Amino acid sequence: FAFAWLKVGKTDIGVYSLHLKSNLVVRGIRDVEMAKNVRKREVAVEQLLAHVSDVIGLKIPSIRSVIIGGDFNTNQDQEIFGNENTLRSLWNAGYHCGFEGVPLDRRITHPGNHGYPDATFDYLFSKGAHLRPTITPTSVSDHFPVTFDIVLPR
Hints:
The protein is α+β, with helices and mostly antiparallel strands. It has two helices and six strands; from the N terminus they run ββαβαβββ. The protein has helices at about 30-60, 85-90, and strands at about 1-10, 10-20, 65-70, 120-125, 130-135, 145-150. The chain has a four-stranded mixed β-sheet, with helices on one face. A two-stranded antiparallel sheet has the order 5-6. A hairpin with a 2-residue loop joins strand 1 (about 1-10) and strand 2 (about 10-20). The longest helix has 30 residues, at about 30-60. The chain starts with a strand and ends with a strand.
């Protein structure tokens, strides 16, 4: 992940950008390799949350809003990710993504292809800010860009 400390008006914001491990398996036993991919994502989010706590919480307490965004390569819609804690860890830590309660057909960020179903893999999570997401279908990438209006506390 990458971290930036921004000031918007009088509000300090911590912004994290990430790209978590894909689901690609090119060799080895598929189930074993998929489990490794899941664990890599879970560990990465654990490390990121530790950074939020240890760096922002202890060293930059003026940051009241934290935003975490990128390609998470997981979702809560597909059974294959049912036991994965990557997204759940963020929700349990008090983060929200703006997709809560939105039906899948209105939050597809990775259109289905090559036998894979439509999915929401791209998120922006926030704590201390409110997010309003917009997904823009395009053929520029295999993922649709996700933009957010961010409402910061006063």
